[in-house]
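Collaborator request, handled under Task 6.
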Amino acid sequence: MLILSRKINEKIMIGDDISISLIEIRGDQVRIGIDAPKTVKVFRNEVFDAIKAENKAASESLPVFPQFDFGQRDPL
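Structure tokens returned to the collaborator:
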């Protein structure tokens, strides 16, 4: 893990098109800004974990299909 020190309004670059800015420090909280292309998904870790868990549960569940009646049709 790379650990960097930054002051307010200083940035960290990831590749050529993702920047992370330190916006504010208040007590034990830090506000950061992330500038990334729309194709890059950015999530808080707890949201990312919830999405992974939901996707796993969906992939393990049985599909639900509507009931079809393939019996004889009544003549007209």
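The cover message to the collaborator said: "The mean pLDDT is 89. The helical segments are 45-60. Please let us know whether this matches your experimental observations."
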